[in-house]
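Listing S7. Sequence submitted for prediction.
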Amino acid sequence: MTHRIKSFEDYQTLYDRSVADPEGFWAEQASTFQWRKTWDRVLDWNFEGPDVKWFVGGKLNITENCLDRHLETRGDQVAILWEPNDPTESPISYTYRELYHAVCRMANVLKSRGIQKGDRVCLYMPMVPELAIAVLACARVGAIHSVVFAGFSSKALADRINDATCKMVICSDGNFRGSKVIPVKDIVDEALKTCPTIETNLVLKRTGQEVAWHADQDVWLHEAYQGVSDECPAEEMDAEDMLFILYTSGSTGKPKGVVHTCGGYMVYTEFSFKNVFQYDEGDVYWCTADIGWITGHSYIVYGPLLAGATTMMFEGVPTYPDAGRFWQICEKHKVNQFYTAPTAIRALEAKGLEYVKPYDLGSLKVLGSVGEPINEEAWHWYDDNIGAKGLPIVDTWWQTETGGIMISPLAGITPLKPCHATLPLPGIQPVIVDAEGNEVEGNDVEGLLCVKFPWPSMLRTTYGDHERCKNVYFSAFPGKYFTGDGVRRDEVGNYRIIGRVDDVINVSGHRIGTAEVENAIDEHPNVVESAVVGYPHDIKGQGIYAYIICQQHPSDMETLRAEILSIVTKVIGPIAKPDKIQLVNGLPKTRSGKIMRRILRKIADGTSDKLGDTSTLLDPSVVDEIRDGVLI
């Protein structure tokens, strides 16, 4: 197993060594895994390309490290513990041995349906064990998994399937989510009308609801399992072979497929998991995220299983059947590490302490926060009421593109400061730059967050469009990876993330590109143009505020609002619905036609008295009109 940091002095020593000799440091961490062939060189890189390769020439299969290598020592230990949506339904657990056989069986199903090394497989599923099993089965046969969160619309799903030219979809008949039953297969069926590369749709029976059936394409998973062996040799992969594609919103309308590879991602996720959460043998670790997001990939599936942990999956939502569900599960399964999003914390805080007090949270040792910067009020509520003022809160900063946690306290080791991600993990070299790209030295400073040296789990490209990867992440500040986040470094060197500086809104921890939402709104026949910005939201962190210009003044505002929300839900999914919509006659534009979002953001967040210079606008009077306008 990779190095486990035991004290703050240990962290400082290891951090210094990781910066002085990154290749030696990461070679040491990587040497604890099973490799079919050891690497020839630890690292080749230049950020101009960008071209980054870790463990060059190394051969492995990540699932042999998640499963096979644990069979002798912890074959009977629980690997995945699953809690269903309905608390009256029994939980299911898989030991490492049972999970190994389940993954092999699923891998053989994939092979029997023509899936080979390098093929792309799209997963659109609820949070059930079969989702984790399918992820690992793809990796076992060398297929590239692309998990799409099962809340996206059929159009958003089709876009992702087509971008990756997937050969297979794995879905379910439906999805239990709180009191709702979501027709998952219906959404997939709609998507597949425009997805010519899909040969098979493998369907898990979860809800038992009626579904349309297309015999030429649809296959029930339980039928596909019949007569299939539960042993499957793992495909040999190069360290730099693709492991998965995960789509994330960008500042343009088209989602970008972030690519992660086998070797470096494996080494970094295990190292970061063990050290951030200070996982001990026998602990029960629970990350409440969905596997459809990077948090679920790295810290429900890969990181914990690589470390030989017991990792929990939860199918439901935090407020069903009531707002005590998270705490009831923590008590029931004696959870030790609990990792959730600020949005969930704020939503549960709003429901009141009567939902917390009935439960014994004495098993908890570590609390975590992920997805967006946590605000001070939520941090203190979490600390006071869930941690009883005695537990470390690891406020983790990282991204889909980084693959793993980059800046975070190590539980019980790093001195905490509310709302601060504190210090970088060993091997991570953050820098703050100003708008011109000059490095801002010292403490008590702020600017733009970049990283100046590669780390093993960083993205390698954006699928099918390497130029986009270069333009988005490596061209703003040559020689550095640009995160798109603003940051403050305090007087002792702690980092605090202060939010996105590009056209991306962080809604409930999920990144949504403003252009994506605008493109959807603009599909309404009466909308001429729209501009979307984020604004502070008590529960979601950021809400979506849309300004729209109509061709004709609508006779019925309520109908217009409902139609716009319906279009956005259809094109992207309910997560991207605007919270506020304002009808305007014009937008604040420069003479070159660029929308001044800075002005729209200040109007949306109620600070329009601090607009600054508006003289560069084509028509400055439009600002007063927008400021005095009303929502529809």
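Caption to Listing S7: primary sequence and predicted structure tokens for the chain studied. The chain has three domains: 8-61+241-498, 64-72+96-235, 504-627. Residues 504-627 form a domain with the GMP Synthetase; Chain A, domain 3 fold (CATH 3.30.300.30).
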